[in-house]
Every structure is written in C-alpha cells, then in structure tokens.
Write a structure and sequence with these properties.
5 helices; arsenate reductase (glutaredoxin) activity; Arsenate_reductase-like; Arsenate_reductase; Arsenate reductase family protein; single chain; Thioredoxin-like_sf
Length: about 120
Amino acid sequence: MEIWVNPACSKCRSAVSSLDEAGVEYTVRRYLDDPPTAAELGEVLDRLGLEPWDVARTGEPVAAELGLKTWPKDADSRDRWIAAMVEHPKLIQRPIITADDGTAVVARTPEAVQSVLPR
C-alpha cells in the first residue's frame, strides 16, 4: 500500500493516522518532492477509475496561471492534463492511497480510507 501525501495537508495527516491505527504496512510518498511520472499518474488514474480533471486541484494558483478551468475535458486532452499535473504536482488531489489489491482511492474521508483497508 502506498499513500501520496503533502505533509502540510490535514486530510493527509488524518489518512496516515487511520492507516497507523489499522496497523497496516504502507509507504509514504511525498508527491510534491517525488512527483509521479506521467505513466505512474496514468496508472493511478486507471486504478481510481477517474480522469485527470476529476482529481485536479483547480483552485491552486498554478491552475489559474495555466487556465486549467478552461481546458477541454476529453480523451484528446487527457495527456495534456496529466503532463500539467506531473510538472505541477500541487495540482494533484490528495491523499491518494493505492492498495495492494489493485484498488485506489482519493482518501479525503475516513470512509474512503477504510474502503482500502484489508478486511
């Protein structure tokens, strides 16, 4: 199990605490310091069943600079979105947990974290 976190984010700290309480083994990836590659982000999006614009933080200042809210949300634009998120990892919603069973979730709620814990 891996969790992508920004240590300054309260939702990330809460998710890490939930994983600790559950006693599961996991790896922390500080994705701002160690951004995913386009291939890694694409794989995580596939596991999430989401598109890049579904997990983009469009309220970030860099999103405004890029005009992200005006970008098309279609298959032809998918790689452009992913490239922007790789170049500017602050645009990636957090925390994201990828579980060993192949599932993944944007773990912004306790319920989302619980959904990927081993039963």
